[in-house]
Design a protein that fits this description.
Layout: H1 9-59, H2 72-79, E1 109-111, E2 123-125, E3 132-134
Parallel strand pairs: 1-2
Antiparallel strand pairs: 2-3
Length: 151
């Protein structure tokens, strides 16, 4: 008896078609999960920096970390304590470093200027109002407005 082991071409084609159907049904769920995770990370980073801005204001008699005409480097230096303000043995009230915006992968800060959503930096700080916002151009619904402006 001549026994042949293996799969026929028809069986292989059917298996490939089934795998393709399953992958097309599951792939959108993974992409939505990745988008949800980036949005959650963005919200966490915004909350973290905003809390540290509040702490900075309390420690500095209501002054904001940057004022009009100053740079993002000034803001970062003050909010991270890199200006030497935190050199004691107690836990530091400052950030270790500026977090990265997960949508454009930038950790730079823009002080003032155009509204948030310019996409030139990771973050935007308004020296007049004290608002801290994401500065990416993410527009998932295609309406021409950055999605993260209201976060």
């Amino acid at each position: 008896m001549n026994g042949r082991n293996g799969f026929s071409l028809v069986q292989v084609v059917i298996a490939v078609v089934v795998l393709l159907l399953v992958s097309t049904a599951v792939a959108p769920r993974f992409s939505e999960a990745a988008l949800d995770a980036r949005t959650a990370t963005l919200c966490e980073n915004l909350q973290l920096v905003r809390r540290h801005i509040e702490v900075y204001c309390r420690l500095h008699e209501g002054r904001l970390p940057a004022s009009a005409g100053e740079t993002g480097e000034d803001f970062t230096r003050r909010i991270t304590g890199a200006d030497g303000a935190s050199q004691n043995s107690r836990p530091s009230p400052y950030l270790e470093h500026m977090p990265v915006n997960p949508y454009n992968r930038l950790a730079t800060v823009r002080v003032g200027g155009l509204e948030a959503g310019a996409g030139t930096h990771g973050w935007r700080f308004d020296p007049t109002t004290g608002d801290f916002q994401a500065d990416d151009r993410c527009d998932t619904d295609g309406d021409g407005l950055p999605e993260h402006k209201s976060l």
